Each structure stands twice: as structure tokens, then as C-alpha cells.
């Protein structure tokens, strides 16, 4: 059985108000659809912590830098609802654009600091789109908890900062990246890979894990990152957009792993942009 779907804010709030009257805690899992096991793992994590779980599905035009990229993004609402049914999720909120950005909408939520560099440098305005829509989804659902995947680690830290700075009473919880058996991080964008590209794609994670091991052993970042970049390009990726070692808490650049860190990458395989990251243990 598919999960119930509502498409208007009025329907959503009527449902969550009833849940609140019953004393239920509410979790939200924001998505742009094309659900895969990574999304479903977030739903299961949410169900372990809350009485009711709302999954949101909204392909947010404000976080795309390319009209072609927006048009190509998969839209599979019926399939997504069917996938959610067996998880036990309680509601799928799939609003039209007018429910999120009604006529005259003129507000943008912008976060500084943690948005600088990485995807923030290569996708201008992207995180403004993310924080604007996520702040609205937090307020529309009135959720107590929100679940995000660590694969989009910069996004996770940006959302945490936004919620903290705006005093939105919600706990933002990051969940470990889910991977295929060959190491490829699950992503809706993986659907765009050709068979040949899919065979190459796991080599991105392999290079990251090797580099993370060297960094955790105390090696300096510059030579390790240079070697990893070369290795990624040698496998068939056409461009490494960034490959950075950053502090886990505030995403400040690091020259060595002298505290808990993340190694983050964005690389192009054909016409598909893949991102990934792995934790790097800080030196004792």
C-alpha cells in the first residue's frame, strides 16, 4: 500500500494538528523524490525516533543552477509513494510550486560561513535555495526532528546552522551515507550514468577512502589530495571540481587532520556530477 499523499499546506497542517492533539512527536525527511535506499534509510531512522513521519517531495527550482538540470531531474511521485508504503511512513507531502512559492513570494534565507567553498563556490545561489525551502518545510510541518543524509555533508551543516540561527525548534540529525556493494554512494543522479560510467563511478569512493586513510595516519593534506585527484582523473572522470579536507564542525579548510574532519569531493563523470565525502579521524 502506498503512503497517503497530501499536496496543500492546509491538508498538511490539519493532519499534523491532529497528531499534535494526540501527543505525537513528528519527524520530517525532506527529499526531491526519485527515492532510493538512502532515502528509505532516513525514513527508518526517523521512525525509530518519532511517532509520526512526514516525507516531503519537492523538486525545488531555486536550488538548481541550470534549467536543463532542473528539467532532467527525475520525477517519480507514484513510484516514490509506493516505495514509502512498506516503510511505515505516515504521510507524503508533495506540494506544487505555488504552495512553497506563492505569488509575490519575496524572501530568501541565506547562510554564510559554512556555505563558502565546496558546492557553494561552484553552484552560486544553490544553498540559498536549499535553506529557503528547508526553512519553509520545517515551519510548514512543525516537525520536532529532521533527518538528512551525510552524503550531502555541506548541506547538512548549512541546514543545522540555519535552524540554529533562526531558533527553529527542531533537531537536525545526520545519517551515515548509504552505499552500493561496490562503494558508490547512493544518489538519484546515479540513474543518469551509462553502463560504462556506472562501472567507473565506484572508483571515486575508492580514491576517497585511500586518501582518508593516509590523512588519518597524519600525512599532510596537499600531497595526499594531489595524488587522489590524479587517481580519480586516471579512472575516467573528466573533471574534479573540488577535493578538500575540511573540519567536520565548521567546514574550515585544514592542512592536516588535526581534528575530526571530512574529505569531500565533487567530480564529473561524463555529464553527471557526483559528490561524496568520507570521515577522517583527527590525530590523537
Describe the structure.
Helix 7 (126-141) packs across helix 8 (153-165) and helix 10 runs antiparallel to helix 11. Helix 8 (153-165) links the parallel strand 5 (145-149) and strand 6 (171-175). Strands 1-4-3-2-5-6 form a 6-stranded parallel β-sheet, with helices on both faces. It has a 3-stranded antiparallel β-sheet with strand order 7-8-9, with helices on one face. The model has no long low-confidence stretch (mean pLDDT 96). It starts with a strand and ends with a strand. It is an alpha/beta fold. Helix content is 39%, strand content 19%.
Mean pLDDT across all amino acids:
96
Overall body shape: globular
The poorly predicted ranges are none
Task: Count up the helices.
Answer: 11
User: What is the rounded distance between the termini?
Assistant: 50 Å
Based on CA atoms alone, the radius of gyration comes out at: 19 Å
Q: Strand order, main sheet: write it out.
A: 1-4-3-2-5-6
Q: How many β strands by DSSP?
A: 9
Class inferred from helices and paired strands: alpha/beta
Strand content: 15-25%
Residue share in helices?
25-40%
One letter per element, helices H and strands E, the order comes to: EHEHEHHEHHHEHEHHHEEE
Main sheet: strands, sense, barrel: 6 strands, parallel
Amino acid at each position: 500500500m502506498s503512503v497517503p499523499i497530501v499536496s496543500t499546506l492546509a491538508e498538511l497542517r490539519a493532519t499534523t494538528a491532529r497528531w499534535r492533539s494526540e501527543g505525537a512527536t513528528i519527524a520530517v525527511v525532506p527529499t526531491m523524490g526519485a527515492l532510493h535506499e538512502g532515502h528509505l534509510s532516513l525514513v527508518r531512522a526517523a521512525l525509530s525516533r518519532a511517532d509520526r513521519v512526514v516525507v516531503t517531495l519537492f523538486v525545488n527550482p531555486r536550488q538548481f543552477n541550470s534549467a536543463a538540470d532542473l528539467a532532467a531531474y527525475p520525477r517519480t511521485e507514484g513510484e516514490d509513494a509506493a516505495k514509502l508504503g512498506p516503510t511505515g511512513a505516515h504521510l507524503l507531502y508533495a506540494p506544487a510550486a505555488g504552495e512553497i512559492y506563492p505569488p509575490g513570494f519575496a524572501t530568501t534565507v541565506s547562510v554564510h560561513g559554512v556555505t563558502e567553498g565546496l558546492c557553494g563556490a561552484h553552484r552560486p545561489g544553490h544553498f540559498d535555495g536549499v535553506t529557503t525551502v528547508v526553512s519553509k518545510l520545517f515551519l510548514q510541518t512543525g516537525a520536532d526532528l529532521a533527518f538528512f543524509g551525510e552524503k550531502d555533508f555541506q548541506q547538512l551543516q548549512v541546514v543545522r546552522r540555519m535552524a540554529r540561527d533562526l531558533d527553529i525548534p527542531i533537531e537536525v540529525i545526520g545519517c551515515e551515507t548509504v552505499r552500493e556493494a561496490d562503494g558508490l554512494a547512493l544518489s538519484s543522479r546515479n540513474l543518469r550514468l551509462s553502463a560504462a560510467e556506472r562501472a567507473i563511478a565506484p572508483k571515486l569512493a575508492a580514491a576517497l577512502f585511500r586518501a582518508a586513510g593516509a590523512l588519518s595516519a597524519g600525512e599532510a593534506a596537499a600531497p595526499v589530495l594531489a595524488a587522489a585527484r590524479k587517481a580519480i582523473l586516471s579512472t575516467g572522470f573528466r573533471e574534479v571540481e573540488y577535493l578538500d579536507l575540511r573540519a567536520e564542525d565548521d567546514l574550515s579548510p585544514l592542512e592536516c587532520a588535526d581534528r575530526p574532519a571530512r574529505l569531500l569531493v565533487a567530480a564529473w563523470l561524463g555529464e553527471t556530477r557526483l559528490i561524496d565525502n568520507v570521515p577522517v579521524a583527527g590525530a590523537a
